[in-house]
Amino acid sequence: MILWCDGAHDPAENMRRDAALLAAAECGAAPVLRLFRFAPHGITLGIHQRAGRTLDLARCRRDGVPWAIRPTGGRAIFHAEEWTYAFAAPIDDPEWGGSLREAYARVSTLVLASLLRLGVPAAFAPSGAGATAGAADAACFASAAAHELTLAGAKLAGSAQRRGARAFLQQGSVLLGDGHLRLADYLALPETGRARAHEALRRATAGAGKHLGTEPPLERWADALAAELGAAVRRCGGAAGAFLLIPATSRSYTPAAF
């Protein structure tokens, strides 16, 4: 596996990079785990969401909040005060591939082990966890599903997976603080609905900041992940990992329209 501590980009560029990793994996590239942040902070929507229905686009424009559509499913996230990852691998990879459930569990177990190594007492969501109806239905962090991570019973990390013909992409976010609560300000809801959504998100989530500090560097997480992966991992940082975005063959790949 290649561990790429990539750094910070805006929402559109981060999603472009993740789609490119999926394209490379479709061509048979080795598994890649990309770690990144969002600068500026912004919103991503699941591939099946529609921005005009989910977001108050006029308010996003007024406040200069960028947004993009993820290659994966799931619901809306405001990306701030978090660690974010994308994992791409061929479905037939002997260590990281397999069925949706198998691949999801392997990646999520790695993320959990890295957080435990850093002193965060995270755990998998209990079996049978699912969506919570209400004002925050458009928000990813409104509920926790199986193989997602919790902290003191509240959702700590959310993730979603997309599978192509030959490869899959899993994207996930680990909350550090309360920045994700800003999503409520930009949902296509009346003011009273936004207040309810904010409260629902606050009650449903927990950040790892009290265990990791207010602004833990991304490299700290990379070190923990590398320790879990052992000698087989190859590391690269920043611009040095740009080669990973180019498929190894000339076979074309056209992602679904976002």
Describe this structure in words.
It is a single chain. This protein is of the alpha/beta class and 258 residues long. It has one domain: BirA Bifunctional Protein, domain 2, CATH 3.30.930. The chain has seven helices and eleven strands. The protein has helices at 11-26, 51-54, 57-63, 100-117, 191-204, 209-212, 218-229; strands at residues 2-9, 32-38, 42-45, 67-69, 77-79, 82-90, 122-124, 149-151, 154-163, 167-175, 234-237. Strands 7-8-9-10-6-2-1-11 form an eight-stranded mixed beta sheet, sandwiched between helices. Strand 9 (154-163) and strand 10 form a beta hairpin.
Brief descriptors of the model:
globular, BirA Bifunctional Protein, domain 2, alpha/beta, 258 residues, three-stranded mixed sheet, 24% strand, disordered C terminus
Short description:
The chain has helices spanning 11-26, 51-54, 57-63, 100-117, 191-204, 209-212, 218-229, and strands spanning 2-9, 32-38, 42-45, 67-69, 77-79, 82-90, 122-124, 149-151, 154-163, 167-175, 234-237. With 258 residues, it is of the alpha/beta class.
The coarse overall form would be: globular
CATH class: Alpha Beta
**CATH topology annotation:** BirA Bifunctional Protein, domain 2
Measured distance between first and last alpha carbons? 28 Å
The CATH superfamily bears the name Bira Bifunctional Protein, Domain 2
Strand coverage percent: 15-25%
Give the radius of gyration. 17 Å
Major beta sheet, strand line-up: 7-8-9-10-6-2-1-11
Question: What string, H for helix and E for strand, traces the elements in order?
Answer: EHEEHHEEEHEEEEHHHE
Main β-sheet description? 8 strands, mixed
Examine the secondary-structure arrangement and name the CATH architecture.
Answer: 2-Layer Sandwich
Uncertain segments of ≥5 residues (pLDDT<50)?
250-258
- The domain count comes to 1
What proportion of the residues is helical, as a percent range? 25-40%
Total count of strands = 11
